[in-house]
Amino acid sequence: MGTVNLKGRSLLGLEHVSKEEIELILRVAKKMKKVVLSDDKKIPYLKGKSIVNLFMEPSTRTRSSFELAGKYLGADVINITPSGSSMVKGESFRDTLLTVSYMGTDAIVMRHKAEGAPLYATKCVKPIIVNAGDGAHEHPTQALLDMYSILERKGSLEGLKVVIAGDIMHSRVARSDIYGMTKMGADIHLVGPRTLVYPELEKMGVTVHHDIREALEGADVVNVLRIQLERIHSALYPTNREYARIFGINKEVLKAAKKDVMILHPGPMNRGLEIAPDVAYSDESMIQEQVRNGVSVRMAVLYLTIHGGDGSELAD
User: Which domains occur in the chain, in start order?
Assistant: First the structure.
């Protein structure tokens, strides 16, 4: 445990993060959740540090939770979006990064539509880079909060059947979930239309299905992905109504899963499309708790990458 140290390291994805490092983040997140649930949410471990949220795509949950995470830890946090910056005047992405970094910034939390943008940022500037989603590549903190949410209810990921349903092709969440959850011992199954779930994905150590009931048979966890309407520019399925009928997660198809199945969704939800409202707000759903866990996990990531250590100084 003592040999794992993330201080000074950027978090670009989970593909190259070890099981031990994931376990460290999740252990610290558990301590951070106690802070989130407390009456006094301020702990001073990042006092004097500055964090910039550079979000080139819209976001509610991720940007807000990173902002709160930094502030709860005592850091100064500012948000930059394209519409409110010199990028609308033609400033390049590289020049924006340089401008931000020369203001004494310790970390940049970044969301960008281009895959590889956070990696490019690490080659341009010195602050720690935390990937908050790059195109359809990875979204590591979402996968970490998914894993944390599963651990809260199930105790372990080892041997669990986790079904990821929906728009795999466009999903950065799915890729990070696969990298992280397989390292933690979960059995990952993907399901969706053939146009959105390619057989080649089995090279990642998962099982691919195109029949929703077959995929859900004996499932412990179902992570329902949002149909990313903003990324779909061609007819990848007949109609929204047909998708909901064939691949939507509702009470009827969930009868194939285990009785204590838990439901996840990264949000925002297209209710009535990929997920039925009565499932989204059911006792099996952890969707709202995922939002709270997102703050705890992002606190852990910022604490470990900027402050360092193993969290032993934090109250249990």
Answer: 19-137+294-307 (3.40.50.1370), 140-291 (3.40.50.1370)
